[in-house]
Amino acid sequence: MQASAYLKLSVATAVVTIALKTAAWWWTGSVSLAADALESLVNLAGAVFALAMVTLAAQPPDAEHPYGHHKAEYFSSGFEGILIIAAALGICWGAIDRWRHPQALDAIGLGVALAVVSSALNGLMAWAMLRKAREVRSVALAGDARHLITDVWTSASVVAGLLGVMATGWHWLDPLLAIVVALNILREGVHLIHESTRGLMDEALDAASQAQVQTVLEGFRHPQAIRFDHIVSRVAGQRRFIDLHMHMPAGWTLGRAAALRGDVERALMVAVPGLRVSIQLLPLDVEAHTIDQDDLL
After folding, report:
1. With 0-12 CB in 10 A as exposed, 13-18 as middle and 19+ as buried, what is 191?
2. Cα torsion at 278, 212, 226, 269 (round to 10°)?
3. Which CA distances in Å does 267 have to 183, 217, 248, 272, 281?
4. Separation of alpha carbons 112 and 93, rounded Å
5. Residue 227 pairs with which residues in a beta bridge?
6. Which of 151, 155, 218, 294 is 20 to 30 A distant from 65 in Cα terms?
């Protein structure tokens, strides 16, 4: 199943959980359940946007985007983070008003049951999405899954709080719990925006992948014949790129040099799945100019 199919399931799950949580809030009047329902509404908006961005990221390179559209997934993660922060602020506003004017809750048992069902649906969906996100290295899918996990913990906290209200009769626990939920949601939103920003800044490959690259190159390196330098990498969504210079004897034929370059490229792509390799061939006694003239100004 493709990543887009998981996001479509996420959209459907969000619609169901919104209905369940809204019904729970309607019957109980619980502000914490209202906060939980609002977060699920954010889940829906985030899943729809993530689906759009994953679809865009899957498009092949074109004249205006020769390296592809993979970075579109980072916009999804950032957008979802912004939505989460907005939801957290709205929850805090409503909770503070309820704190100042406490109200008795109705049908708490029914509200708890609906919250548990919706939490179970989100938990199963998040588990499946995280597995797929790790498999295809999808930032958008991982971001949506983490948001669903946050929703699961939110619902669990709400259920615990409502059970506390039933046991003690302390109605002020409801708005207090809503504020705690909002702070947790806020933390997750900041984390998603941070991850999105990191991706847009062209970060290098992770340490494990860089170590794999070095291991492969060591297998081809020869003190008097082959050396590698100017190794630069970057990550863009599901794609990973690496550029490097390969130096070899000036007397080698072009065919021999090209054949060795092909061997190195294939070995690197096998060692690091999803890697795109660009190798510049140079004689052993030649160094390329790699300093941007703008850096000298």
Report:
1. middle
2. -40
3. 47, 9, 18, 9, 17
4. 23
5. 247
6. 294
Domain ranges in the chain with CATH number 1.20.1510.10: 3-200
What span, in angstroms and rounded, lies between the C-alpha atoms of 142 and 120?
A: 19
Q: Which of 161, 160, 150 is nearest to 184 (CA)?
A: 150
**Helix ranges restricted to H, the chain:** 3-28, 31-57, 72-100, 108-136, 139-168, 173-200, 207-220, 254-271
Query: Residues 71-130: pLDDT tens digits?
Result: 676 676 677 777 778 777 777 777 777 777 666 666 677 777 888 888 888 888 888 888
Please state the three-class secondary structure of 170-190 as a single string.
CCCHHHHHHHHHHHHHHHHHH
Residue 112 CB: number of other CB atoms within 10 A? Answer: 22
245 within 8 A of 279, measured Cβ to Cβ: yes
Q: Residues 6 or more apart from 167 whose CB is under 8 A from it? A: none
Q: Residue 7 corresponds to which tokens in the numbers above?
A: 């996001």
- For residues 68 and 237, give the distance between their C-alpha atoms in angstroms, rounded to a whole number: 10
Q: Which residues make Cβ contacts (< 8 Å) with residue 182, sequence separation at least 6? A: 35, 87, 88, 89, 91, 92, 95
Which residue matches tokens 């930032």? 139
Q: Which CATH number fits domain 3-200: 1.10.260.40, 1.20.1510.10, 3.30.1300.20, 1.20.272.10?
A: 1.20.1510.10
pTM, two decimal places: 0.53
Q: What is the pLDDT of residues 9-42, one digit of tens each?
A: 777 887 888 888 888 878 777 777 777 777 677 7
Q: Which residue has the tokens 């950032």?
A: 78
